[in-house]
Amino acid sequence: METINSKRKQCKIFSHYIVVCVCFLLIVNIRVNGQQSGGRTYTGDNKIKTNPIPPKTEPKPKTTPKPVTTPKPIQEKQPEKPKAPENLKIPELIPITPGIFTMGSTAPRSEEQPLHSVELEAFEIGKYEITNKEFEVFISSTNYLTQPEREKSPITWRSYFTLDRENYPVVLVSWHDAAAYCKWLSEVTNKSFRLPTEAEWEYAARGGVTTKYPWGDEIDVEQANYDSELNRGLIAGVVLENLEPVDSYNANGYGLFNVSGNVAEWCQDWYEQDYYKKSSLKNPLGPETGLFKVIRGGGWASQSDACRLSRRNNNSTTFAAAYLGFRIVKVNQ
User: How many domains does the chain have?
Assistant: First the structure.
């Protein structure tokens, strides 16, 4: 009997022990859950918040978004086209028909060899060299300064321009000065002007002949303005004394004046001594680059050989001399 009572007593104690353990585990579980819920505790199924309630904020008023527009591109102001002055007179031109001619010579000068055939399209070329008056209209319209003027030289094209010398060829102009005149004339007339290519110059200057000069193989003072006595210096007084009007002497077979003598003339092309050996046989334009530009025709201070139709000379684009001018070409568009 004692054994049974003893066992009952042990079971009762064990039951009490289990109840205590269960209660302990419940208490621990409640505390852990309370920490994980950020300080919130729960009683039964009702959730009671212990943290403060955040203040209510007024909702932001709705705004209608502004339409997105693509900004218009800023257009650069185009430079105004120069207006043709009232006193503009387009230089007189001679139409040259398309054709084939023999360019170069057999003279003992390698830069003129070999003889080769060249085919050209139609163009128009100045009947005369550009005059002081024609150049002065350009200067007055643009306030352009020539190379000697930019260099503050005491002698410029104006040194040889007076009212009684309007029909004389303009001199002391660089290649850039001549090209600037052509560009301006193109703009105010809406036509295309430039300096003649070397091939165009020789074709037009020959006027249909194959001789050394437009009139034959000899030259004298009755036919051209050149230094026949080898005594012309390059001082101002001599220049004024020896320059001649652009319509002096006789015209060549195509009607051009002073292609040999009076003033040498700038051409469009870069100069290359051996260019004829690789030149295009149709409308040659000269080398793509270079250091010097071609000069043709000889001038009042040149010896007879320099006035030959095939003679090639050259100088830098900034060079200007009292025996050097230019004539123009109009390209058929």
Answer: 1
Residue with the two structure tokens 């003649």:
196
The residue behind tokens 């005594």 is 231
Candidates 219, 209, 227, 196; CA nearest to 127 is 196
Of 289, 293, 273, the closest CA to residue 176 belongs to 293
- Is residue 67 in some structural domain? no
The pLDDT tens digits of the residues spanning 35-49 come to 444 444 444 444 444
Look at residue 21 and tell me if it is in a domain: no
Q: What is the pTM of this model?
A: 0.76
Q: CA 243, 247, 253: angle at the middle one, nearest 5?
A: 120
Determine, yes or no, domain membership for 131: yes
In a domain, 83, yes or no: no
Residue pair 239/322 in contact (Cβ under 8 Å)? The answer is yes
Residues 144, 292 contacting (CB under 8 angstroms) = no
DSSP single-letter state for residue 152: T
List the domain range (segments joined by +) for residue 289: 93-331
Apex 92 CA angle, 312 and 132, nearest 5:
75
For residues 214-233, average pLDDT? 93
Q: How many CB atoms lie within 10 A of CB 295?
A: 26
> Which tokens belong to 315?
């100088």
Burial of 285 (0-12, 13-18, 19+ CB in 10 A): middle
Q: Residues 174, 319: contact at Cβ < 8 Å?
A: yes
Per residue in 246-279, pLDDT (tens digit) is 999 999 999 999 999 999 999 999 999 999 999 9
Q: Domain holding 105: CATH number?
A: 3.90.1580.10
